[in-house]
Amino acid sequence: MRLDVLTIFPEYLEPLRHALLGKAIEQDIIQVGVHNLREWTSDVHQAVDDSPYGGGPGMVMKPSVWGPALDDVAAGTGPAASCSDLISSVPHRLLGTSSSDAAAPRLGEESPTTKPLLIVPTPAGVPFTQDMAARWSTEKHVVFACGRYEGIDQRVVDDAANTYRVEEVSIGDYVLIGGEVAVLVMVEAIVRLIPGVLGNAASHQDDSFQNGLLEGPSYTKPRRWRGLDVPAVLLSGNHGKVERWRRDQSLLKTAARRPDLLEAAQEAGLLTKRDQQVLDAGTPLEE
Ligand code: 6GU
To answer: What family is this (predicted)?
Structure first.
């Protein structure tokens, strides 16, 4: 998968180099380009915004800068062609040994039938969900356009639909200064779902949201810590009982914290009779 980010704060995307994401870059599972939007300005002040038509506070980002920038990132031309892709800071132990080099196109070499995906982070977007992360984790080329929160001239988004499949997306009901942190959030959610990025492919089977419920608590050694014991069932060696206990914890936590998710799970027919008994009792059923 190839990811490109357009931003006026390229250094804000530094965290992409680290930990799991850096490793995915190193292993050539993802290629990441971070582009400074100001490279597409033509005036001496490198202005990217201007006052809004109709008046009001704040500034709006200029279509004359964003239009060519998005064209170039889609086509791999202009300043987008010479961007230095983010390289992980850790030693390139595995560089050049990947067998998955064919998976991602080079910039500007998309299949003519599939437009790249353009994500525009905005508090006015549709809510980002685990489902979207899962769908986008199979994309070949995803481009993120970071605007300031007053936004980008709407015609940029409208016109980009000629070149991209465009989605305006919010990461929650609060307002950030710009889209950069939202991009970090979405990239992490997407990339961890790509096969080979997490050590154990099964480790996201039980994720919160993957099955419509919140994940229950986890424990490790020691068995007793500061007077607190690991629940006995987890030491029982009875796999069936452990699974039932985990399911109960998951159900009860979801009921307490996210009744909206629980209702959706009920409506989708994801709960068994036994699940419903646990919820009605408000406590795990004793065997
Ligand atoms: Cl995606 N962008 C900005 N600027 N603010 C947000 C957001 C995105 N999601 C919630 N607040």
So the answer is: Belongs to the RNA methyltransferase TrmD family.
Report which ligand 1 atom has the smallest distance to the Cα of 186. Answer: 1
Mutate to test the pocket of ligand 1, among 118, 119, 122 (most ligand atoms within 8 A of CB): 122
For ligand 1, the distance from its centroid to the CA atom of residue 171, given in whole angstroms, is: 6
Give me 218's structure tokens. Answer: 């986890």
2-91+114-192: CATH topology: Alpha/beta knot (3.40.1280)
> What is this structure's pTM?
0.88
Q: Where are the alpha helices (DSSP H) in the chain?
A: 19-26, 63-75, 130-136, 154-160, 180-191, 239-257, 259-267, 273-281
- Give residue 157 CA to ligand 1 midpoint distance, Å: 16
Q: At what angle do helices 180-191 and 19-26 cross, to 10 degrees?
A: 60
- Averaged pLDDT for residues 207-215: 85
Q: Does domain 224-281 sit in CATH 1.10.1270.20?
A: yes
* Cα 254 to Cα 23, 83, 244, distances in angstroms: 33, 45, 15
Segment 54-67, tens digit of pLDDT: 999 999 999 999 99
Res 137 pLDDT > 70: yes
Q: Is 207 an active-site residue?
A: yes
Regarding the beta carbon of 167 and ligand 1, being less than 6 Å apart is answered: no
What is the tens place of the pLDDT at every residue in 167-200? 999 999 999 999 999 999 999 999 999 999 987 6
- Residue 172 CB less than 6 A away from ligand 1: yes
Provide CB contacts within 8 A for 111, sequence distance 6+: 105, 140
